[in-house]
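To fix ideas at the outset, we first show an illustrative case, written as a sequence plus integers encoding its fold:
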Amino acid sequence: MNKIFNPNNPINKLCISGMELEESGNSEGAITMFHKAWDEATDDYERFIASYHIARIQKSVTDKLKWMETSLQCALKINDDNVKSAYPTLYLHIAKCYEKLGDSENAKRNYELSNSAKAAHTDEGPFYHGTKADLKIGDLLTAGGISNFNPEIKMNHVYFTANINVAGLAATLAKREGRERIYIIEPTGEFENDPNVTDKKFPGNLTRSYRSTEPLRIIGEVTEWMKMTTTQQQEWREKTAKNKGEIIN
């Protein structure tokens, strides 16, 4: 199964709504929303995400362990590069649960599995950059641009993704005028997981979002992708405007 993270997927949207309730202090509303996501999930990918959020909000270590192991089993069934970045996080949460329960053997085993999964994960692309800038093949994208989320911040990195849906969202949110564009890029140097999304809302780096201090070379352009509706665009612009979280720059 190849299941690309889609920010407009109904289950993802339910979980995001649950997280918003959680952040506002409404933990009962949040758990109701996460269980609704679980009940309405239609495949292992959606169940993996819903059960992770149910696990996060559990007060009982035993219940947290049960739901986190459910999330891991759903993720392992998918066996997909888009999900593998979540393995280290899931194993780590499970290890901590076993540790709190005094089961040192299972804690040690899951800590080791977390470290192994972290070392094994690599992403070979293809990679995309969403923008409204009119660029051409061979141009270099460099750090120093203004953040789409806070116009007062000059970014120390240039950002990209292996998920075309996320690149499309970035193009939609780009501040400048012009039509939305998605360029195919290749990094010219080392890159890292984008810490602004990794293990923040969802486990691991499901959006396959990365950043680099080195330039990105444009090697092509995507001309067709599933563009968001006007309503979806407005929803995301409103979410962005309300987002007061710190940007890790």
